[in-house]
Design brief:
heterodimer; A: about 220 residues; mainly alpha; two-stranded antiparallel sheet; B: Cytochrome C Oxidase, Chain A; 15 helices; about 0% strand
Chain lengths: ~220, ~500
């Protein structure tokens, strides 16, 4: 073995997985586009995925490193019970039907899908369905322990403004419990960044039917 | 050995002179990298303690945004990987390659130092940016995107002379397994680094595929950069200190090429069951288990080489660190296999067990081997011997216990987290059980990082004294089994 064949060996050993796992999938991914639903087969109209991601709110999520503790990926039942968790998908009444696991197109409009690193907190793939009102969510961000005293979520106080009440109190002021309330004469209001983050989280709904394999198709009798 | 008193044999003397000349030629850059790396290691372990505490008690030290877990944890990992890991690896690679190829570093020393300075400035800016809220949230690439071209250029400044030394001294018939690994690391790291950064920072959005590429990047850097440097150091120092040749050339060669062939396939199983095409995660998972083959081959070879020479492990600090580092290689392979295999991986996915793999491979295996190398290299560059046996011993034991605790606790915590996640009775409950059940494990993680921080403090002080030339003036190396603490003071003190 001479020097040249050694280098060639190194290149070939790594080049093959590089080509198969990275280059070809990346090239093919560029051709992935939204697809239209077929009214007859899927029972719905429009495009899949229906709307692009709220990129502005996602920036706040990215900046704060939320994906260190929150995943955005529902696994199929043979791997985990994610889809069966209450509120982790749209369908709450018709149990037992699990929320579907995710497909590549669910994240089509995202620059980088925040699938997550660890699952310290609950999964947020379809958080929009179970989310409380925006006001309650703001309270959760400002003082997580006012919602659950066992919570290990950081308080994102930097996304909120503590201000002196001048004139009538703001109708956007957070309704905090006594322990977490600001001093008398002050109120806590969300900054625009907090609003973007909440809008983003409320928009997270990634269990729309996949064209061609929706629940309606699965449930309908097989056609020959 | 270089410190052997000059014998009448002129050939041996010429040999020693040549080695001393090689050491002198790489002294500046290597000591620069080691010292700065040790500072980053110190910082990284302290951030590790803080991050673990914040994961249990988020109100610790107040709610300041720059110390929230979401920013501390990436800062901790980036300091460990780029601040310490890559820097220390480059130092070891440069020294071993120069010695093994018998070549002096002829020119470009100031370029290497400049590259090192730029590397450190860039990492500092990058980690500050993460803490200030400019993180990209791409695991191991959290630093802002202007950082990577600078890092790449600095790395190549080192990789080029190392590769040139290898090329000039390549002997087809010669058996140079440690330099194979080091050249492989030089060659693969830029490739992996460019691929991941171009894909994730320069191409238009890749959505979920981007997450897969990131997972591939992490495992590529571990398996094709940190692991080869660790094994390369082990293959260099174990025969050197035990005085035995490497047991089997066939095993060494097979271990190298199986790692080279398998290393690039794994990683995407991190998102098994996710949106990635199933074959990609399946290939990653299968390779994650198959990697037990190179792990076993190398482990067997090291075992056969040290067989009967275990007394040297007790006395030589270098061999002790490398021996235990080499023991952590099978452990890391085992953890990777557990994370990858379908039936255990489904429980361990998205749990601390993946953190356990990163820590055991980057710290337990790679860093322990590098510590061993540093204990051998630095006395030869600074011209004095390590001051204190006690400092070395404490560094060793606190590191071993700390790493052991993190690995075991994170694995068990992972199992617990997975069991909680997949417990059907939790389907309509909030996350209280998961949070409360994992609390104790995270506390143990904080304690373990605190032990490691303590050991690193001693290592850093010891290293700084050595670099400042304040070590023992003696021709006898500092060994662990003989008590010579009483004359451990510098000769001129």
């Amino acid at each position: 073995m001479n020097f040249r064949s050694f280098i060639l060996g190194l290149a070939a050993a790594f080049g093959l997985p590089w080509l198969c796992l990275i280059v070809i999938p990346v090239v093919k991914y560029q051709q992935l586009t939204p697809v239209a639903y077929d009214k007859d087969k899927d029972g719905v109209e429009g495009m899949f995925p229906p709307a692009p991601i709220n990129a502005q709110g996602q920036l706040v999520y990215v900046r704060e490193g939320c994906n260190q503790c929150h995943t955005q990926m529902i696994r199929p039942s043979q791997l985990g019970l994610d889809g069966w968790y209450k509120g982790w998908g749209q369908d709450q009444e018709a149990r037992p039907v699990a929320a579907r696991s995710n497909v590549l197109r669910d994240y089509l409009s995202e620059k980088y899908a925040l699938l997550g690193i660890q699952r310290v907190g609950p999964d947020l793939t379809n958080f929009g369905w179970r989310a409380p009102e925006a006001a309650a969510l703001h309270v959760h961000f400002y003082a997580p322990r006012s919602v659950h005293d066992w919570s290990t979520m950081p308080a994102y106080t930097q996304l909120y403004k503590l201000q002196k009440i001048q004139g009538p109190p703001s109708d956007r002021a957070l309704k905090l419990s006594k322990k977490f309330a600001p001093p008398a004469g002050y109120e806590v209001v969300p900054t625009p960044e907090a609003d973007r983050l909440v809008e983003y989280l409320l928009s997270l709904k990634r269990d729309y039917p996949v064209p061609g394999q929706s629940a309606a198709v699965a449930a309908s009798p097989a056609k020959k | 050995m270089q410190t052997t008193p000059a014998s009448s044999d002129t050939e041996l003397q010429a040999d020693n002179l040549r080695r001393a000349a090689i050491d002198k030629s790489v002294k500046g850059p290597v000591l620069f990298l080691f010292t700065n790396g040790a500072f980053w290691l110190m910082l990284s372990t302290i951030l590790g303690v803080l991050a673990a505490i914040k994961l249990v008690e988020p109100e610790f030290l107040g709610n300041a945004p720059f110390i929230s877990y979401g920013r501390l944890q990436p800062a901790h990992i980036n300091a460990l990987v780029y601040g310490w890991g890559v820097q220390a690896a480059l130092g070891v690679m440069l020294w071993i390659m120069a010695r093994r190829s018998g070549q002096e570093l002829k020119h470009g020393k100031s370029l290497l130092i400049t590259a090192g300075v730029f590397w450190n400035i860039t990492i500092t800016v990058g980690i500050l940016a993460i803490l200030m809220g400019k993180s990209t949230s791409i695991e191991w690439l959290e630093m802002p995107k202007f950082v990577w071209p600078v890092l790449l250029a600095c790395f190549l400044c080192y990789a080029w002379p190392i590769a040139r030394m290898f090329g000039r001294a390549f002997r087809p018939e010669g058996f140079m397994v440690s330099t194979w690994y080091i050249l492989g690391a030089c060659f693969w790291f830029p490739w992996i680094f460019i691929t991941a950064n171009v894909a994730l920072h320069c191409l238009p959005g890749l959505g979920a595929l981007g997450a897969g590429i990131d997972a591939w990047y992490i495992h590529g850097v571990i398996l094709l950069f940190f692991v080869p440097v660790g094994i390369g150091a082990a293959y260099y120092f174990i025969p050197k200190i035990t005085g035995q040749p490497i047991a089997s050339a066939q095993l060494a060669s097979a271990g190298f090429w199986t790692l080279a062939i398998l290393g690039g396939w794994t990683g995407m199983q991190k998102y098994m069951g996710g949106p990635l095409p199933a074959w990609m995660t399946a290939v990653g998972a299968a390779t994650g288990v198959l990697l037990l083959i190179p792990v076993g081959l190398v482990g067997l070879n090291h075992h056969l080489t040290t067989l009967g020479k275990h007394s040297a492990v007790a006395s030589s600090p270098t061999l002790r660190f490398i021996f235990f580092g080499a023991l952590f290689y099978p452990v890391s392979g085992f953890v990777l296999a557990l994370n990858s295999a379908f039936w255990t991986g489904s429980a361990l996915q998205f749990t601390q067990s993946w953190y356990s793999f990163q820590v055991v491979s980057v710290y337990g295996f790679f860093s322990m081997c590098v510590f061993g190398a540093i204990y051998y290299i630095v006395p030869r560059l600074s011209g004095c011997e390590w001051l204190s046996v006690r400092l070395i011993r404490n560094h060793f034991w606190f590191s071993v216990y700390g790493i052991g605790t993190i690995v075991v606790m994170s694995l068990v915590a992972g199992w617990q987290q997975g069991a909680d996640l997949n417990n059907p009775e939790h389907w309509d409950q909030n996350f209280m059980n998961h949070v409360v059940n994992s609390r104790a494990y995270v506390v143990s993680r904080a304690v373990a990082w605190a032990l490691i921080s303590f050991s690193n403090l001693m290592f850093l002080l010891h290293l700084l004294l050595m670099v400042a030339g304040l070590g023992r003036r003696s021709s006898a190396p500092t060994l662990l089994h003989r008590e010579h603490d009483e004359h451990a003071l510098p000769a001129h003190a």
